[in-house]
Amino acid sequence: MGLNLFTIGANKARPKKQQQGNSGEKTPAQVLAEGMLNVRDIIAPSAIEVDFTFLRIGNVYFRTIFVSGYPRFVGANWLSPIINFEHTLDVSMFYYPVKSKVILDDLRRKITELEATTMTNVEKGKIVDPVVSAALEDAKALQEQLVKGVEKYFQFSFYITISAETLEELESVTSKLESTLGALLLISKVASLQMEDAFQSAIPTGLDKLLITRNMDTTSLATT
After folding, report:
1. Which residues partner with 55 through β-bridges?
2. Distance, CA of 179 to CA of 174 (rounded, Å)
3. What are the Cα distances from residue 193, in Å, to 15, 48, 63, 64, 161?
4. For the residues 105-109, what does the mean pLDDT come to?
5. Which domain of life is it from (predicted)?
6. What does 97-112 look like in DSSP terms, one character per residue?
7. Looking at per-residue confidence, does 216 or 81 come out higher?
């Protein structure tokens, strides 16, 4: 009795091909679920517009400001004007610990540069720059505190997001907020061309998409 190998191979291949076709088809439950309303459809805004200096979600405008400069000395509760601001603000802060050894190496180089600048000015008979003297004094004090373990070093990010119903209101609140920050000796800037990342950094997801940081020690962060 002879065996038809081609027939056997064909019979085995047909169910496999049919099985692959069935696996690619959607079940009635999946088809039904695609046509039903879910939570994402309910909470999703009608439209999102990303501009250079603002973000519009539905009918609400958003703008994020980041702080790039801080005063030399601050007191306790120094951010109370921002917390008690007349308009609703979303404030985001991020802290990144930095190893003391890395900071000490940088401080050593910075102190050497500042001392060299001071000595050069003295040799040339120029008046010592008070800004350089203050920076040198701060660097030496911080170096001593880090060596003793009194202070730790961090990188700090500070973002403020404004929401408004109209673009005119957004501009007005932005101007008032920048004036308030300026009175606190804070240098603030609008996150231009980065509004989408800035907005994502302000919502409570714990993600810092901007990564605009400033070095701070433990004492400075404790008063923030």
Report:
1. 50, 62
2. 9
3. 56, 15, 11, 11, 15
4. 88
5. Bacteria
6. EE-HHHHHHHHHHHHH
7. 81
Give CA separation, 152 vs 25, 100, 104, in Å: 59, 7, 11
35-64 pLDDT per residue, tens: 777 787 778 787 889 999 999 998 899 999
pTM recorded for the entire structure = 0.71
DSSP 8-state secondary structure symbol assigned to residue 223: T
Tokens, residue 115: 């001392």
The full set of domain ranges for the chain reads 39-95+153-223, 100-148
CB 187 within 8 A of CB 67: yes
Angle subtended at Cα 187 by Cα 182 and Cα 188, rounded to the nearest 5 degrees: 95
Q: Which residues of 10-46 are buried (b: 16+ CB within 10 A; e: fewer)?
A: eeeeeeeeeeeeeeeeeeeeeeeeeeeeeeeeeeeee
